[in-house]
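Field notebook, page 341. I keep forgetting to write these up properly, so this time I am using the form the group agreed on. The chain and the ligand, zinc ion, are recorded exactly as supplied. Prediction of the bound pose follows.
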Amino acid sequence: MLEELEALNDEARAELVEVADSEALRTWELAYIGRNGQVTGMLRRVGDLPPAQRPAFGQRANEVKNALQAAYGEREQAIKAAELAERLAAGALDVSLPGRPVLTGGLHPTTRMLRRFYEIWADMGFQVYRSRDVEDDMHNFELLNFPPHHPARDMQDTFFTTEKDVILRTHTSPGQIRAMREYYPEPIRVILPGMCYRHEQITARSEVQFNQVEGLAVGRNIRMTDLKGTIAEFARRMYGSDRQVRFRASYFPFTEPSMEVDVSCILCDGAGCRVCKYTGWLEIAGSGMVHPNVLRNGGYDPAVYTGFAFGMGPERMIMQKHGIEDIRYFWGNDLRFLQQF
Ligand SMILES: [Zn+2]
């Protein structure tokens, strides 16, 4: 049996040299030194020998098994190293290749413009007041002094919902009523930014959604000169100190008197260009003194309080600034457009 053991030892060592990968190594281990391997089997058979031969055989068999285990360990290491080297070689990097650009996200142009608004108006003492996107007819129209048959109430302009009297706001102005009712009798200086919704044909000039930034100041002794000075100051901070600002009489139901605000064209500096339609002026806001009815509806007595309000369109201002002619780009999610900012 000792010769059998030595033969087995030689056979196992010869085979181990041939083992080339992890899988073959595992097979070898099971065949010789595993729990049901041949060398392990011989150790179990030590009882078959005459008692006098048992110690010598047992000792040798243990030696053989331990030596094979050590050899196995060495072979295992060598194979693992070889396999690792192979994997590394297969996935080799060419460090001389140019790097791939890392695409970082950017802020939407409207978001950037809105943040600029917040900065400028915060510096001028106006805080952001967030009103709701979903409104009722009362706040969106009636309390803002819209006469009952005003065209803006037409189905064409307003998104109605299946809920009775629940609509998407068509402008940020209903936030004026909500801010006044919340702050009364304190003086108010807020801007109300947010998305507005109109049930319109989507064209290069009109979208069903767009942002507005409403502004509202209410207090004692607020005059039209305050409105003009404030808007002119905003225009200079937004577009530079050499901007000319002009006011044109206009009409809005919720202000009286009402004015449109123009700045001298930021592209041609007033000389006339395609963007300003060769007028030299860009319209940046609608504005006016808060109508007494609106003040009253907000809880402020118009005999004591006065106020001014304005509304601006961040998307339209971006379009003016960059000469963009199609408002549909803003919500079209075309990266070629968005990545330019
Ligand atoms: Zn121009």
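OBSERVATIONS:
- The chain has two domains: 2-90, 109-338.
- The chain has eleven helices and nine strands.
FOLLOW-UP: compare against the apo run.
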